[in-house]
Specification:
Blueprint lengths: L4 H4 L2 H20 L17 H19 L14 H15 L12 E6 L2 E6 H26 L6 H5 L6
Antiparallel strand pairs: 1-2
Helix pairs in contact: 2-3, 2-4, 2-5, 3-4, 3-5
Length: 164
């Protein structure tokens, strides 16, 4: 039996790109720059480590309500390589517990977007809100490393591209 679209468009995507984020965390750590985890694209934007954390949180904020479950509590971790890896590993473990069949139920998902309170049909929530926000924060983390001159490229982002 094929998994419902809401599952295949969320959980496997989150799992793949959380793995890519883990690789970016390793690159940030390997740079030997103690400020890289606090680096920002602009003064009013979140730093690298928080961009990673928020992307992780969006994976939970999306997948669990889509499966009809409460969002597990977030766990604070140190803004370090080890702390971010613990966070990513925890999210991956939690995502692995979800039953694909639970995503087939049409439901309204409630969340907050800044100060706005949302009540969106599941498909709108996933495709127009949750996935774009996940990728906004994951992309911001990637771009912070690019801005700092670290050796990251498209291959590090998606894991598919290969360059010579």
């Amino acid at each position: 039996m094929t998994a419902p679209l809401r599952y295949t468009a969320s959980v496997p995507v989150f799992r793949r790109y959380l793995g890519q984020l883990a690789g970016l965390v390793d690159i940030a750590h390997a740079a030997g720059d103690p400020d890289v985890f606090e680096a920002r694209l602009a003064p009013d934007m979140l730093p690298f480590h928080v961009q990673v954390e928020v992307a992780c949180n969006f994976a939970l904020r999306a997948a669990f309500p889509l499966a009809g479950l409460p969002v597990p509590p977030y766990v604070d971790e140190a803004p370090t390589r080890a702390g971010l890896h613990r966070r990513i590993d925890r999210i991956l473990s939690l995502l692995a517990t979800l039953d694909p069949a639970a995503f087939a139920v049409a439901r309204t998902v409630h969340d907050t977007a800044g100060q706005a309170r949302l009540a969106l049909p599941a498909d709108e929530f996933l495709f127009q809100y949750a996935l774009p926000n996940f990728f906004f924060h994951a992309g911001a983390a990637y771009h912070i490393l690019r801005q700092r001159g670290l050796p990251v490229g498209k291959a590090h982002w998606d894991g598919y591209h290969v360059y010579g």
